[in-house]
Amino acid sequence: MNVRNVERESSLGEAIEVAATAAQRARGLLGRECLNDGQGLMFKGCSSLHTFFMSFAIDILFVDKHGKVLKKAVAVHPFKLVRAPLRAYYAIELPVGVIENSGTQVGDHLDFGEEEYALAA
């Protein structure tokens, strides 16, 4: 899936995977050595994310069901826990530097392309 920041006219990734099943959600990024440019992982309906047992840092965005960025966590190192704000509907894990390079700020709106409406259902 392609995820774009509407306000900044920037891309957060063109190959964002959706963790749709319980197994995908449980595994997350475990077992991977890195996230390459353009890659990421999106979760629907999570109250927190952790980087326990991961071997690399990530950027994290928490977004409401309308695509509004509620919280950003930059360069979250392994063995950390990041809590989502109350209205968070999506969490997106990205390579370190994506939030800064895209200029993404709390309050910005993200576009998930044509898949946006299928995700919110």
Question: What features would you describe in this structure?
Answer:
- This protein is mainly β and 121 residues long.
- It has three helices and ten strands.
- The chain has helices at 22-27, 98-102, 116-120; strands spanning 3-5, 10-13, 15-18, 39-44, 48-50, 58-63, 69-76, 81-83, 90-95, 110-111.
- A five-stranded mixed β-sheet has the order 3-4-9-6-7. A three-stranded antiparallel β-sheet has the order 2-1-10.
- Strand 1 (3-5) and strand 2 (10-13) form a beta hairpin.
- The chain is globular, with a radius of gyration of 13 Å.
- The model has no long low-confidence stretch (mean pLDDT 91).
Which properties best describe this structure?
121 residues, mainly beta, 5-stranded mixed β-sheet, 3-stranded antiparallel β-sheet, 3 helices, 10 strands, 13% helix
